Amino acid sequence: MQAEEFSTPALTALRIDWPAALDQLRTEFAHSPAFAANFGFDIRRDMRADDSRSPALVRLNAITGLLYPAIGQSAVPVLLPLDAAALLAQDPDPNTESAALPGAQAGFQAAMFDAGPAGYDAVFTLDGNLGNSLPARVFARPVEIQITGSNLVYDIADPLGGKGEPVKDLAAQYPDLRRFIREGHVRYAFSRFGAAYVVSVQCLDSVPKPRRLACREAYPVAKRFLGALRLAGGMPQRQLRDIAAMPADRPVANSPDFTYWPSGELIPGSGFRKQDGRPDSTVYAQIRFPIAQTPAYARSQSYTPRAESGANGPFAYPWRDNFCESRSFGVGQCAMGFGHQGQDIRPGSCQPEQRGCDVKQQGVVAVRDGVLIRSSKQQAVTLLVNTAREHIRFRYMHMDPVQLDRDGVLDGRRVAEGERFGVVGNYLDFPNGTTRHLHFDVQVFTPDGWLWVNPYTTLVASYERLIGGRGRDLTPTPPAPAVARAGQDSALP
């Protein structure tokens, strides 16, 4: 075998039909004289469907931007559970303290909103007391509903993609809506105005549990959310271009000590039901390595082969992929649809000569400029990146939730690449629940929503840039072909 060549991902740019969005806006506000009266324009003239930069969009963004800052930066029409017409009818001067807001949002509360050249992402919550029309169960925390609208989709090999069942009672509003359960979420995917949209709720595809929503309980929550969606903002921007895969940039000089097994090369026997890993040589984004200092070691936390343990145990090269290692998590990119979802990384241990090194204070940093998604008490932090060339998320796990809450690592916080926002921890439902390591994973946006992809090659490339040297791929070298003896035909009978 030859060492794998790293490449960047391919993306498709969707063309947005803004005249169709304006036509819907005109319909939604046709019976709202408050919108025209309080913002001083002719509703028929300024909502012409052939005018993609209609003053109506400017005014709509001005109204809803009071509740969702920078909503006008979304390059796709923003659909939210916000009835702006109803809000204006009750309160001509809306603000975040408006008494009319809960009714205008159908009972949902906004937790996070972010918009940019690739579209928008939002997280909403519905109070744990779900009401008479929803499951009669009170949850330990509010139910979270996520929605993404995007004009960029990643072209990945997806064996489970494009499936789902129609939702008959929403077919009139969403003709191509399909519902399916993937990777621990019930998802509702549809297209509108040329953009791809997905609404998702994390759930268990099993019986209900005291602190976890079963997927069948999530159905009415998501349907209520979908039924409440209205056009809330956005603005036409320059049409994005398709992005072709290209060879990834890597250092020319070789590292004297960094070695790694190729992607998909799991520890023998560690895959789900002994299945092999899935090779993936894609560098999904050029990132800063997520741990502040080197050395660091991408290695399994659950399987330690004797041949690789050595004197320093897990604190040694070579690196080893464990994306498809045996777990019960849904991962469409792994054999049989189950795997680990991400990569385990150990920071280097403190040596006696390292002054000031504290094994409990090894920093975790932002891999890119972006916005954080995290509600209180969670031990996972997701970093969202939205640019003209990518729509991607990175998740960090096993950090101390108490410390994260204390440090304000919560929904909507913006961070800069390289900024420290936590430390490597060992939290898994409770302190000391796992070994001290960072679980890091990557999700890209597709027509099926946010899907996990193998972060291993992305991490190898980022580590090489950080240390300034290319690692040595340990891909086994095939044996040389046998040389025929003189005068003897080398062909087999």
Protein architecture, described:
It is built from ten helices and 25 strands. Strands 13, 16, 18, 19, 20, 21, 23 and 24 form an eight-stranded antiparallel beta sheet that branches. It has a seven-stranded antiparallel beta sheet with strand order 3-4-5-10-9-8-7, covered by helices on one side. Strands 1-6 form a two-stranded antiparallel ribbon. The radius of gyration is 25 Å and the shape is globular. 16% of the residues lie in helices and 26% in strands. With 493 residues, the protein is an alpha+beta fold. The two termini are 27 Å apart.
Main attributes?
493 residues, alpha+beta, 8-stranded antiparallel sheet, 7-stranded antiparallel sheet, 16% helix, globular, disordered C terminus
